[in-house]
Specification:
Layout lengths: L4 E5 L1 H8 L7 H9 L2 E5 L1 H11 L8 H14 L1 E2 L15 H12 L4 E3 L3 H4 L11 E3 L1 H16 L2
Helix pairs in contact: 3-4
Length: about 150
């Protein structure tokens, strides 16, 4: 059985999948449950998730936020370290740069984001070892591959 695709999910994508259970991200949640994809994270990304889960607009109590955080942290593969020693495209939002660095350090296949500043890096002249995709683009690619293409 081939290894699962390695993905970095930015915080908004994590929230769409785990908090809102957004139907448009349902195929990603299903692929995660099936083991077709594996999420990568690190201490900085988990701390950002913890901070964002406390935002009043998410309307989560402390227990629910802690449960979501723990669920995601338990499912994701922790990548040690921080930063990246080699030159990478620089995101104008330093909070989002952490996801670019994690994807490089963790040897991700894809970085999923809806953030315009992250998506803009797809046009960078610097080569990346991973694709930057919107969630819908990732779902389309997963559907084209089909479950048997990844797991015979």
């Amino acid at each position: 059985m081939p290894p699962p695709l390695r993905l970095v999910l930015d915080t908004n994508v994590v929230i769409d999948i785990f908090r809102f259970r957004d139907p448009s991200t349902g195929p990603l949640a299903q692929a995660l449950e099936q083991g077709r994809i594996r999420c990568l994270t690190d201490a900085g990304c988990l701390e950002e998730l913890r901070r964002v889960l406390a935002y009043p607009k998410l309307k989560m109590d402390e227990t629910g936020a802690a449960r979501l955080w723990q669920d995601y942290a338990a499912r994701a593969e922790a990548v040690p370290g921080s930063g990246w020693p080699e030159h990478l495209p620089q995101c104008r939002d330093q909070d989002d740069q952490r996801f670019i660095e994690l994807a490089a350090r963790g040897r991700a296949d894809w970085l999923l984001s809806k953030d315009k500043l992250v998506l803009k890096l797809r046009r960078s002249l610097l080569p990346l070892s991973f694709a930057i995709l919107r969630p819908d683009e990732a779902i389309e690619r997963l559907e084209r591959q089909g479950p048997t293409a990844i797991f015979p």
